[in-house]
Sequence to fold (170 residues):
Amino acid sequence: MSRVSVGVTTLLALLPIIASAQSLPFTVAVIDWQPDERERQARSYRSEAAEHEVLYCVESWVVHHISEGLDRIEITSVRRDVAGGKRAIRDIGSHCADRDGKLLPTIHTHSDGNCQPSPSDLVAIATRAAPFDGVQCGDRYVVWLFAWQISAVFEFRERLRWQSPDTSSR
Ligand SMILES: [Zn+2]
Fold:
């Protein structure tokens, strides 16, 4: 078993305990891969991510309801979309739409080993509002982001600013 799947398995084992203990007011989604698709993505990353950023579209996934407040999202199909520059893909927003024009989740690569989303990544992900998005920074390392969580932080920040303009200013 790979390190990543051990990590996911451990997380899946722990999350019901965490979720029930803390009663999170939202559903936690753990993103996982159909095994063949995980290997395909790892090979694809190794083959070209060092040269330039690559954008992938997640075309299909299955949501498994694990327990109250916990879902496992299994990615079953990913398509390579475009390659960008060394450091950036311009205008992710218009890419990765399905036949009905609905925006699909994206995965884009960072070749420097740092999966942290850039400010423009966060804006693009929040604006597109897909169910989830990933930043991949190694053949088996992906940080998953959720547009609704970015929006929630933004709204919370705006509310603070409105309630207390003096303390929330930069
Ligand atoms: Zn990025």
